[in-house]
Amino acid sequence: MKMLSEPHHLCTFTAGPYWFGVAVDSVQEVVRHHAITRIPLSSPMVSGLMNLRGQIVMVIDLRRCLGLPEASADVRPMNVVLRRQEGPISLLVDTIGDVRQVDPDLFELPPDTLREPARALIQGVYKLSNRLLIVLNADRVIATAAAERNMEERTS
To answer: Maximum CA pair distance of the chain?
Structure first.
């Protein structure tokens, strides 16, 4: 895991009561709620596919990845579209925040007491004056969603 040594910019968003961030340079764009087509036999973490201006994008539900309860019916989720080598992938989140510059001196690794599945998906936290900003490891979120599907295929 790389340590953060210079001021870092994070795109922030929420899932449930938690405030998350991912490196802003990994974000392609943020888009409002889009129609999502469910994929039969896909991992429960994968909400489906969306058409983003002619490009098909896989949508991963961050709440499901973290083991959080489903959002209430009145929540219109947002998409944080991540730039990936294999093409864009969207994280479905509750709300979008802003871009925050964080001081690397405030960064801490996740505590040993943090349980799975969250522990594997979190890079660390920034202790800010009014709350914790959780740094999400987007690569692991995507890998976890893919691994979940592969495990289901092997057990079927």
So the answer is: 48
Phi-psi map region of 138: left, alpha, beta (phi>0 left; psi -120 to 50 alpha):
alpha
Place of tokens 């994008």: 57
The three-class DSSP label of residue 12 is strand
Q: How far apart are the C-alpha atoms of 17 and 43, rounded to whole Å?
A: 24
Cross-strand bridge partners of residue 124: 135
Beta bridge partners of 132: 127
For the stretch 13-62, pLDDT in tens is 999 999 999 999 999 999 998 899 999 888 889 999 999 999 999 999 99
Closest CA relative to residue 33, chosen from 81, 70, 65: 81
State pLDDT tens for residues 70-123.
988 888 899 999 999 989 999 999 999 999 999 999 999 988 887 777 788 999
Go through the chain and tell me how many residues it has: 156
Enumerate residues 6+ apart whose C-beta is below 8 A from 124. Answer: 107, 108, 109, 110, 135
What three-state secondary structure class fits 120? helix
